[in-house]
């Protein structure tokens, strides 16, 4: 189970990274086409339809899918200056509280993002750009990403409770 | 009761000013029983989310640009189809034909249109005069939707996607050399900083629409409902007059600031009309029956 | 609970936020929880649906797409020899200047601000390269962090600028003029920051490490060869914007491609380094995105509760003189900026503030720049300051410590505010010269 979850978080992180790469390639391709049009004149002028929309959707995927992976890597920001001065038991209680509150609000967000997707699906909402994209498709990344973050928060909470001491290590902290 | 009302445009826009007057009218007519708080300039929800926020009753009422929905049904977008309705009279007739269809489409999402107000007719911004369609050939032309891209292609111009906020920079760096937009947008973005000529081709007269959630509306006291509908009807009439005044005033502002205002030559008009017809032919291939019915009603 | 007054509600919410942050709840989640409480307790809006709409609505914006790309560019530069080369090339020229290589932070941010529209991207890109180099050379940490946090705020003032676009669109001011208006105040801040570094170095000369000072002019020029790749990168990115083949957002992608090519050409950068850079950029941009979502939800919650709007209207009731009004607004914005991000501060209050400001005869163009300076200050004040978050992400130093290092720069921004108020020409001179 531990291994399965870790692979799951990393895999989603990998897809997020690929999404960033996709934004980069898409935009570079358009800049390349702009340069071609500048050299070759209007006859050689092409645009990638809705490229700004697609870059935006890839950004959403990158942001949401990386959330659990980023949490487990300790890269989400928090103020640890005060907590770190508490005795270990105090730190542990604060961590459990943080994880429980976090799981609560993100679980809540996940549930309502499912409702939002269901509504987009029900009404057949599409993006307004040159290429109409059914909105539920990019919104899927939101549901999956938030769902994974909920899982990761609960997972870490269970780890922390079992461990009877704090388990979250922030990236770069000394 | 208090209603939060998200709108996409800033306080200096006549649409927003009209809506603020509408809110005051409602408050006055209902003795404060219904107060509408206007959240302008996307300060509550981004433009793209306003319609759905009203649909799911996050807010009871909201405003958006009607032809944003053309991907859902082409019926929404006829007011942004180049050279279909090019004057306020045409636009009023088009809205008359469009209204029942749009009302029915929106009803499927639990929404009810209250009123719709046009932007001034869209003109052509360029550096140098455009005497005929041929003069557009080779120009980098701002296109932000499928219709404009097609328009650019038919005019043999090169379509470039530029977001509204990037327009001044795009002109000053030569990323674009021509665009079509209203005199309001031209004057407000101080177009004289980056173009020399405005040709009043009146390409189309797009509209904003204000919608209310049907269930929320039905829950109102009948007297309050009546007050809202009365204020809405007044807002529509007032908004169209404001739009006409705006068109004249903003064109004058541009002229005063050194932009050459050009009435299009007959040759240019004929060329643009031909492009419009070609586009409409293609439009007919994909339009829904409802959308075609609007065009039919409008043409007869 | 409608009987509670707005300042009391504001106080309750702020206390809640501080308690959550102090308990170690992640910043983004603290913002979301605070916003949730605000909506449920003090408005009639359905919190869950609004939360989902905000998350979606803020996640796919096109101008934001540049952020991960600029971060990725910084990560690539860090892992190649390019950042080291830049420092070796600059070092010989800065040895005589008090503060030496600390000026790389100030000037690097100023140059990069001409490419990027946001402060966070500027902090992430320059900080990625400069922090490890400066640390290794033994510069005092508080000055490394402070110069970076402070100078990165130039991202908003020197065009292009996301915040000026937001202000220009909301108030229908010419964005072109706002951009031009930001140039001189930007230069003024560069001078203030650079001057401050020199004063600090002059006061405690031993704190600044010695750089090799024996080179002849010829040797210095030879050493500058190493600046060439970085110069090519900057010219390439700025060049694509100003020749019009790329928008400012597009330019970020050009930056990534050029940085990758140059990194490979200068050696020691391969697939392994690229994957590391990409994964690190993924984490950092996800961290920033989640906080932006939290801040966005809080902004909507504030919109529904009407607190910023009511406070702004309340200020309007005092009929203050222009200078008194500006002083009160500065305090108001600094307070709001402590827990809202700058863009939200602007959109939530301009509708009320701008008419008040115009009524006393203040030029809205000038006010836009005034607002940007205040927003820049909010970037480096805790608990919610995006430059602080980015720098914590880069260095692992807690945001409170970073905020302390940034405090002098907060005061310098305040001084900048005073200067443009006393000499409004700093703002209006260039746009007026554009003429009609
Ligand atoms: Na900038
Ligand atoms: Na702050």
TrEMBL record, chain A:
The keyword Transcription does not apply. It is found in: Cell inner membrane. Residues 44-162 form the Tripartite ATP-independent periplasmic transporters DctQ component domain. The chain crosses the membrane at residues 7-31, 51-71, 92-116, 136-154. InterPro entries: DctQ, TRAP_DctQ. It is a multi-pass membrane protein. It holds the Pfam family DctQ. Keywords: Cell inner membrane, Cell membrane, Membrane, Transmembrane, Transmembrane helix, Transport. The complex comprises the extracytoplasmic solute receptor protein and the two transmembrane proteins. Part of the tripartite ATP-independent periplasmic (TRAP) transport system. Belongs to the TRAP transporter small permease family. This is TRAP transporter small permease protein. It comes from Tropicimonas aquimaris.
TrEMBL record, chain C:
This is TRAP transporter large permease protein. The complex comprises the extracytoplasmic solute receptor protein and the two transmembrane proteins. It is found in: Cell inner membrane. Signal peptide: none annotated. The chain crosses the membrane at residues 7-27, 33-52, 64-82, 102-123, 143-169, 175-199, 227-245, 251-269, 281-304, 324-353, 406-430. The keyword Transmembrane applies. Keywords: Cell inner membrane, Cell membrane, Membrane, Transmembrane, Transmembrane helix, Transport.
């Amino acid at each position: 189970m531990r291994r399965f979850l870790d692979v799951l978080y990393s895999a989603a992180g990998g897809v997020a990274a690929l999404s960033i790469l996709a934004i980069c390639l898409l935009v570079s391709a358009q800049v390349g086409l702009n340069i071609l049009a500048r050299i070759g004149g209007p006859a050689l002028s092409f645009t990638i339809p809705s490229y700004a929309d697609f870059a935006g959707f890839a950004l959403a995927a990158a942001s949401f899918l990386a959330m659990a992976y980023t949490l487990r890597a300790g890269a989400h920001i928090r103020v640890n200056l005060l907590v770190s001065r508490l005795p270990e038991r105090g730190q542990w209680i604060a961590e459990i509280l943080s994880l429980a509150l976090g799981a609560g609000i993100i679980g809540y967000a996940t549930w309502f993002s499912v409702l939002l997707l269901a509504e987009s699906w029900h009404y057949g909402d599409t993006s307004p750009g040159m290429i109409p994209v059914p909105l539920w498709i990019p919104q899927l990344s939101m549901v999956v990403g938030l769902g994974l973050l909920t899982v990761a928060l609960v997972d870490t909470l269970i780890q922390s409770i079992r461990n009877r001491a704090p388990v979250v290590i922030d990236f770069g902290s000394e | 009761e208090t209603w939060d009302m998200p709108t996409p445009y800033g306080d200096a826009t006549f649409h927003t000013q009209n809506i603020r007057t509408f809110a005051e009218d409602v408050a006055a007519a209902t003795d404060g029983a219904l107060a509408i708080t206007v959240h302008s300039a996307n300060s509550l929800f981004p433009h793209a989310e306003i319609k759905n926020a009203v649909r799911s009753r996050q807010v009871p009422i909201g405003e958006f640009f009607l032809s944003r929905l053309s991907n859902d049904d082409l019926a929404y977008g006829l007011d942004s189809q180049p050279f279909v309705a090019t004057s306020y009279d045409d636009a009023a007739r088009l809205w008359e034909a469009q209204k029942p269809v749009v009302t029915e489409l929106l009803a499927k999402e639990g929404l009810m249109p209250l009123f719709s107000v046009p932007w001034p007719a869209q003109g052509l911004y360029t550096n140098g005069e455009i005497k005929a369609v041929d003069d557009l050939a080779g120009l980098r032309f701002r296109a932000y939707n499928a219709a404009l891209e097609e328009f650019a292609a038919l005019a043999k111009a090169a379509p470039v996607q530029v977001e509204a906020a990037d327009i001044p920079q795009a002109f000053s760096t030569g990323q674009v050399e021509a665009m079509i937009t209203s005199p309001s947008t031209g004057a407000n973005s101080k177009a004289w900083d980056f173009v020399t000529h405005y040709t009043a081709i009146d390409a189309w007269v797009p509209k904003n629409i204000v919608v209310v959630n049907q269930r929320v509306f039905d829950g109102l006291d009948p007297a309050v409902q009546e007050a809202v509908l009365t204020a809405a009807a007044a807002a529509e009439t007032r908004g169209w007059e404001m739009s006409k005044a705006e068109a004249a005033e903003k064109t004058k502002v541009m002229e005063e600031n050194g932009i050459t205002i050009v009435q299009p030559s007959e040759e240019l008009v004929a060329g643009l009309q031909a492009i419009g017809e070609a586009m409409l032919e293609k439009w007919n291939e994909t339009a829904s029956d409802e959308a075609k019915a609007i065009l039919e009603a409008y043409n007869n | 609970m409608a009987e509670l007054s707005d300042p009391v509600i504001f106080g309750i919410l702020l206390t809640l936020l501080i308690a959550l942050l102090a308990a170690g709840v992640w910043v983004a989640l603290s913002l979301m929880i605070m916003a949730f409480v605000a909506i449920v307790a003090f408005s009639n809006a359905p919190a869950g649906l609004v939360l989902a709409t905000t998350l979606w609505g803020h996640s796919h914006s096109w101008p934001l797409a540049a952020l991960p790309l600029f971060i990725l560019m910084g990560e690539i530069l860090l892992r190649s020899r390019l950042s080291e080369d830049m420092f070796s090339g600059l070092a010989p020229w800065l040895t005589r200047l008090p503060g030496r290589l600390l000026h790389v932070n100030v000037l690097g941010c100023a140059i990069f601000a001409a490419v990027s529209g946001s402060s966070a991207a500027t902090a992430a890109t320059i900080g990625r390269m400069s922090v490890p180099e400066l640390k290794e050379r033994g510069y005092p940490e508080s000055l490394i962090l402070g110069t970076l946090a402070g100078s990165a705020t130039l991202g908003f003032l020197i065009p292009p600028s996301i915040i000026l676009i937001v202000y220009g669109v909301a108030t229908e001011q010419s964005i072109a003029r706002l951009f031009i208006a930001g140039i001189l105040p930007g230069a003024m801040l560069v001078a203030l920051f650079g001057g401050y570094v020199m004063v600090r170095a002059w006061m405690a000369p031993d704190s600044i490490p010695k750089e090799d000072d024996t080179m002849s002019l010829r040797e210095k020029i030879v050493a500058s060869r190493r600046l060439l790749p970085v110069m090519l990168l900057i010219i390439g990115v700025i060049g694509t914007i100003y020749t019009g083949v790329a928008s400012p957002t597009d330019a970020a992608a050009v930056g990534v491609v050029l940085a990758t090519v140059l990194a490979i050409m200068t050696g020691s950068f391969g697939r392994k380094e690229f994957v590391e850079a990409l994964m690190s950029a993924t984490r950092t941009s996800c961290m920033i995105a989640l906080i932006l979502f939290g801040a966005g939800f809080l902004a909507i919650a504030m919109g529904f509760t009407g607190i910023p709007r009511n406070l702004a209207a309340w200020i309007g009731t005092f009929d203050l003189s222009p200078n008194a009004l500006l002083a009160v607004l500065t305090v108001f914005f600094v307070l709001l900026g402590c827990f809202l991000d700058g863009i939200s501060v602007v959109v939530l209050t301009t509708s009320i503030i701008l008419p008040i400001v115009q009524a006393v005869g203040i030029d809205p163009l000038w006010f836009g720049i005034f607002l940007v300076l205040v927003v820049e200050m909010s970037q480096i004040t805790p608990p919610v300051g995006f430059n602080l978050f980015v720098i914590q992400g880069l260095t692992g130093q807690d945001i409170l410590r970073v905020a302390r290092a940034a405090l002098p720069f907060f005061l310098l921004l305040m001084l900048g505010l005073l200067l443009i108020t006393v000499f409004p020409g700093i703002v209006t001179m260039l746009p007026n010269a554009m003429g009609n």
